[in-house]
Structures
1.
Amino acid sequence: MVDFHRDTMPTQIVALGGSLLRPEEADERTMWFGQLRQMAVHFEGNGRKLGIVVGGGLPAREGITLARESFSDPYRLDTVGIAATRLNATILQQTLQDIGCNVSPVIPTSTNEAAELLESHNIVVMGGTTPGHTTDAVSVALARDCGASHCVIATNVSHVHDSDPRENPDAKPIEELTLAELAEITGTEPLGPGGSAAVDPVAVKWAMEASIKLAVLDGRDLSRVEDALEGRPFIGTLVKVD
Ligand code: UTP
């Protein structure tokens, strides 16, 4: 369990990996969306602001695989991935509009636009922006543009590990490390269309440039996301600036 931040009323930014929207079991899906609605209402009820950046998950993988049969230009493949992130963002944005949240009716295409929309809405949901990175990097850029000191990255693994847990069963979870140490694990080269890593290397680079602290955690359990957003100790990896 690690502490994240002590800010009481800042704008908070969270990246939700696209896989989180599609748990395999229908009742898990219902529960996850229910918890997300509750979290949003609770946030808005306290007059706070929340920027949600949604990943592409399954439709991004499917779309990029299908498109690769026709072309291999990475810029074009990334453009397909971005469309999938915007599809997922629209699902969440419409879900929150449906329950009456003060969520932006526009899905912004840049983090500047998102930061501006957060001035007049409690919640802004967005997906990707431009080719060359993933939504992890978008969330770090949004935190930077909102003047936030930190950003929550919710994936489907519990922690950053010292090696890839999908390849190495002995990979060890890390509770706390610095951005420079994280960069040693993820590398610093962009991933390429549909590529994956514990955290997108571009996000790590931008976090170093803007001194943004990260919480990397398992968003299948939204109470962990809420703990980090509230500045409470959370289960996951705290990535300190230095
Ligand atoms: P994601 O952000 O979904 O990547 O973008 P991910 O790491 O696979 O995240 P999960 O699975 O949702 O957790 C999917 C793809 O969309 C393109 C990239 O090709 C990326 O691999 N993309 C996304 C961009 O080019 N720019 C963006 O801003 C966002």
Note: The helical segments are 26-45, 57-68, 74-98, 111-120, 135-146, 179-186, 201-210, 222-229.
2.
Amino acid sequence: MGGHNVNNILRGSRIRRSSKEANDFTSSVGFDGPLSGHVVKINMAHMVSLVKSGEVGQKEGAACLAFLSGLPTKMDLDPSTEDVHHWLEQKAIASVGIDAAGYLNLGKSRNDQVATALRMEVRERVIGIVGRAKRLEASLLKVMARYGNLPLPGYTHLQRAQPTTVFHHMQSHFEAVEEDVERLTQLYARVNLSPMGAAAFAGTSVKVDRAAVASLLGFDGLVGNSMFAVSSRGFLLETVSVLELLMVDLSKMAEELVLWSSTEFGFVELGDEYSATSSIMPQKKNPVVAETIRAKCGSVIGEATAAFSIAKALPNAYNLDLQEMTPHLWRALDDTASSVSLMAAMLASVRFDPARLNETVGEGMSTATELANELVRAHGVSFRGAHQIVGELVRSAVEDGTTLEGSAEARLAEVSERVTGRAIKIDKARLRAVLDALKTLTLVGSSGGANPKFAARQMVQDKKEIEKLSDWLEEKENKLNESTKSLRGEVRSCMRREVRS
Ligand code: ARG
């Protein structure tokens, strides 16, 4: 309590006393770091607009712009200030005087600025994550190219179900990541709209050119209603939701690598770089990176849940509660970005064990469905009838400790007679063919299925997807770089005009 920070310009004459404890509690300085560079740009674009419309004199405007241009990229925000906006204004006043810097906040508010700065940071981070996801897709493609032909037991309920291939399995992950990336690029369009000009929430009588400011800041358009512009965190909630979905997909892949690298499965070996050993059991090779990715998914779900819980039931328009969402956003972005990168790198290190895969794919009667299909196709039995017959053959195989082939040879005629009233016989070669895991794969005709003959064409399509992503990234990055250049140009010419006048 008492005279803490007497130079605090923002508290003005309205508020007399301050408390360090209360300020520390409500200040966002501790997590405004990622916003500070954007806030400087916002101040520049806004001041350029004010000078152009004649709201601020050339001299004052130039002094503000000179101050803003002179700020270092990495700023040490004073923790006794309320936030980056407060810090910046205070620093400007200390450095160029209140007669010039006192105009910085004409026609704008921290409310429109923070919504704008958040959107600027989110769009960059989305670009970064899309870039990492592109590398993940490339790693998946590499695994498909190298190991795709290997057979793989496919599971449902984690019970051996039907044979598939490494290609088919990894391509399913590729499609999942592709869907996540599509969500990110669609999200980008909704994020990249400018709230500036909304001021506190009602708009402003000060002449600001919203469209020009938006364009200098690299936005594709404006958030329309000024109240929506400052109060909505829909873009933030959508971001954490999309991250959550992406992390759920990654955690599935991570869980699978944990299982597959166990002795029980023995399908893959992970690179040493992505493993650790035990401090007591020297034989251990623990999949620590996969485990951490799996856990980070839980953290991101937590951050998203926290953000949603804060956003609910707030009255329109700005409430300081919104500020509390920011650190959750940062953590969700950080955890997701590093998880995607590490999953990409770890997958590129995976080595499949062909002998083990060939051996396991034949076990476990996973071709039973194909035997039932054969009874339908060639012997006029309904599928449910065939399911019953094969189910009984499987049960007796399990009981007698024999194979499905053995039990079919010995008992098909008798079981089928009981179920259908007809004794069915399948010749030995045909029986062997429908029960052979690798052969059944080649029988799959439905598109998107596990038949290896679909792989080559699919890989061509997957490569095209990756190229499309490169184009998207290039387009967005170029546009942001261009806007930064034109902002700098405008700032320079504003400052030059003052020197000439
Ligand atoms: N630091 C705040 C945030 O992150 C913006 C400031 C709004 N504060 C205010 N008193 N209107 O949301």
Note: The CA atoms of residues 418 and 474 lie 67 Å apart.
